[in-house]
Amino acid sequence: MAKLSNEELLDSFKEMTLLELSEFVKLFEETFDVKAAAPVAVAAAPAAGGAGAAAEEVEEQDEFDVILEAAGDKKIQVIKEVRALTSLGLKEAKDLVDGAPKPLLEKVNKETAEKAKAALEGAGATVTVK
């Protein structure tokens, strides 16, 4: 197998969707027994009244998807939160926010999903956790 240069590897990653990249990271972690951890920003936001009922419905789940439905009025703040929650660059985060509704995080635990939702809603975004 020919060795790929760093630029060739980056070009390959640029062509991947967020889902494909997430699957690759998971496979990489399993293969090399490592954990790729991204910093998670936590913003204090008041809990919505309906959020408790929705959380009770899905208690049996152990993996959740965080879907960015809409950026709202504070698009720049939402882009900053997306970057903090993922390891995406500025352009990729902006493209994701512009393309909403889009999956942001997939197959994360309940705590991570709730923190991401609170952070994004605190920045003015509309978020769904499934």
Notable traits:
14% strand, 130 residues, three-stranded antiparallel beta sheet, alpha+beta, 6 helices
Provide a short characterization of the protein structure:
With 130 residues, this protein is of the alpha+beta class. Helices cover 51% and strands 14% of the residues. The chain has a 3-stranded antiparallel β-sheet with strand order 2-1-3.
Structural class: alpha+beta
Strand content: 5-15%
N-to-C SSE series? HHHEHHEHE
Give the strand tally: 3
Low-confidence stretches: 39-50
End-to-end separation in angstroms reads 40 Å
Shape: globular
Helix content: 40-55%
Please provide a written account of the structure.
The chain has 130 residues and is of the alpha+beta class. The protein has six helices and three strands, in the order H-H-H-E-H-H-E-H-E. The protein is globular and about 50 Å long. The model is unreliable at 39-50 (pLDDT under 50).
Strand and helix map with partners:
Blueprint: H1 6-14, H2 18-32, H3 49-57, E1 64-70, H4 75-85, H5 90-98, E2 102-108, H6 110-122, E3 126-129
Antiparallel strand pairs: 1-2, 1-3
Helix pairs in contact: 4-5, 4-6
